[in-house]
Amino acid sequence: MRALLVATGLLALSTAALAGPNQYQVTGPVLDVSPDKITVQKGKDKWEIGRTAATKVSGDVKAGDKVTIMYTMTADSIEVKSATAAKTSKKK
Asked: Rounded to whole angstroms, how far apart are CA atoms 37 and 58?
């Protein structure tokens, strides 16, 4: 019985790891739409979200339409600054 519980736990953890980054959503009226981005009004804020040829769109979206956009956050680049270098420069 214990082995079954451990196996089930490991399966749940591995599934979560394969799921990828968290998915988020924003809903509001479309202010502008182009082949590479869509701008949506959310409250007082304007949200510009990039899109690609792989972005799934159901229908012909145009300004004024209310949409719900599902998106993830993906890093385009990462610049590393060594923590040890920062500590050394503070000591001088």
From this structure: 16
